[in-house]
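Lecture notes, unit on protein representations.

Consider one protein chain, 293 amino acids long.
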Amino acid sequence: MEDGGTLYFGYGSNLDWDDWKSWCEKKNLRFEGLVEVSSCWLPNYSMKFHYYSRSREGGAADVVETGRGHAVPGVLFRMDDATLKAMDQKEGIKFEAYERRKVQVILPNGTFVDALTYCVTEKRKENRFIQPTTTYSTLIINGLKKRKLPIEELKNAIENFTPSYPIENLFVYGTLMHGEQRHSTLVEYCVGEGISATASGTILDLGNYPGMIASDNGVIQGEIYQIDQVYPTLQTLDSIEGFYGYDSEHSLFSRTIVQIETEHGTEWAWTYVYNQEEGIEYQEIISGNWRNR
């Protein structure tokens, strides 16, 4: 990923280029400085409508931390300094409507990147659901659909339902696969049989199990399963894989989201990537297949 500028996670109206361009033109500001980088996910967050926007004449989107298994789809943008100032103005920083927050988002290949996003300030949050207008909701829905990102989480937020778990797939590539030693652990948490799938990256032979290294290089052979109950499943697997949270520096593996390919097309899935220890080198499994190492 190229250096320079500020990385920004957009999840609301800024997913619509025309909306951003129109706002900039009304303010006589440059709009070209907002450059799309990639679709991405913000883990541990959900979308909520608890802020009334006068300019939108209804509820405006916010993202709030809700914990394990939740995630908000959006877009990673790059902004130059002038665009960052313009975005601060659009998000109402001066009027304490939104405030900047540093977050970590996940790219389609499962890698993590630091970015900033905008969250509603405590001062402006209301202890009630505020219905967004159809016009505003449509901006976000179309923005997600354009990038082939799911809209179920957004629909839940628009209808004021309990936050959902937008990703119910799990990609496995080692001892959790069918016929492997830990597969029985997975069976009780999944619906139906797994199907063959691939993800970008490489895998290392760690001895008794493999470790995935997320990247755009290489292809990993594995299986995808539909999770029955997302929270307890990830809770169990987090413990097995030694994942202690995104703010921990001691996790053996990190839970991430990857874009995977199956015979049915492209899907999103949770998986676990290895946190390489400094000074220790492991043999790469050239085939990308744990069963063919």
